């Protein structure tokens, strides 16, 4: 039964993307913020489908730490779902995303229109310079956007040992001089990094208290990892208990 519901959700996930993608085509010729709203609406559709089809509830905590204006959001990355959640939690997010996603119909077009930041993970120093230039243009202090980065670089298994790739994060932190908002999650418990099976339960995204913008990079990385991993592990334990109670 779980597999059947999961397959139905995959149809919902990509079917609603195609339908909304077609209906939203006129937004390609409208102001950028309209396109951000279209992506936000799609994120809500995904959450609705998770609850209706798969029995997965998505909960948000710590929203008092999100505000308009420039912020650096650093998230734990366990599921595709993570990429869309900043569009619900923040006013005008910009996400550092894999360049390969630009080849997806609608998703790639809308990412370009809304000025997300695609990166070539094998691009080296040249990619880093382009990424910083794009970030400085879209996330200036004051009225800038909320930049989201996933420092592990790819989706990881729940409870796996962290494997942060800190070079990009250090560069953003130094160049932008912004507070860091850690975003913990247990999303991989219900939405695994690989495969189509979605497991009933509760996904939680929790924004943690900000880290100041003026710490030495080594201290920043240590405090960030401790906060992010501790909170994500606690959410993972909470999610496992919820699954066992409903199983």
Structure description:
This protein is 45% helix and 15% strand. By secondary structure, it is of the alpha/beta class. It has one domain (2-246): Glycerol-3-phosphate (1)-acyltransferase (3-Layer(aba) Sandwich). Strands 1-7-6-2-5-3-4 form a seven-stranded mixed β-sheet, sandwiched between helices. β3 (93-98), α4 and β4 (117-119) form a beta-alpha-beta unit. The model has no long low-confidence stretch (mean pLDDT 89).
Features:
single chain, 247 residues, alpha/beta, Glycerol-3-phosphate (1)-acyltransferase
Structural class designation: alpha/beta
Helices and strands, in N-to-C order?
HHEEHEHEHEHEEH
CATH class: Alpha Beta
Please list the strands of the largest sheet in the order they lie side by side: 1-7-6-2-5-3-4
